[in-house]
Specification:
single chain; 290 residues; alpha+beta; Alpha-Beta Plaits; 2 domains; 10 helices; 11% strand; elongated
Amino acid sequence: MDLKNTAKKYILPYLAMTIGTAAAAFALEEFLIPSTILDGGVMGISIILAQILKRGVSLFVIVLNLPFLIVGFRQLGWRFLIRGTYCMLLLAGLLELFKDVPAITNTELLAVVFGGVILGFGVGTVIRYGGCLDGTEIVAMLLSKKLNFSVGQIIFAINIAIYAVAGLLFGWDRALYSLLTYFISFKIIDMVEIGMEQAKAVMIITNEGRNIADELYKSLGRTCTLLEGEGLISGKKVVLYCVVTRIELAEVKRIVNDDDASAFVTVTDVSEIIGKHIKNTNVEILAEGE
């Protein structure tokens, strides 16, 4: 294995998880915890226990996550255990490090927005590179196999219960701020975890199907599936189906507008791609009729 592959396989993931964990710890100690705004899952429970028992949050992060690490190891293997343990221990240490640093703001709305964004970035980065900061997802995965609910629904239900407890203990404004933080961080986690390479499915209904398909291939290296269609009023049409990344979408729109400004285009998210996703501009494009 050469140096480049070694760095990509071992060094880059741990560097990224370190940055992500540091961002999460910073968001918690500098924005959320000083304003008694909770994260979801184990971290939320840890903050509640720390407030009640007057102990550091880091202690509860380790103790509460330990059983989930064991369960995760049984389900996901050694790689998860090693990376999860590394992230959680690092999180606990960084929480202690940031604990004595003065909070950046005491304004709840600023804490919610900036804390949620930074926390989402941190957690999303950790998840993207195979780490874990919270054992709630493991519980949700196991429960989803036995219950008729998705992982996301179970996590949301757990967090609602945590925020309800926070509302009873610290006031309902804290619970509402926490819920808002959860929505912000959840969206950022989704963006970071999927990244700018998130796939988009583009369906183009046009009169210039071959021209647009050729331009997409020449410019982006993306092939299209050409289908025959017929509009109720407009008559015969060509329907193109193409999968591109988020950052390529602007170029797709430009090509379509240049070749057929009257084309009808829909764009949808793609959660998973199975099979070859061709991106190769070295293949000769077949001429019309071949």
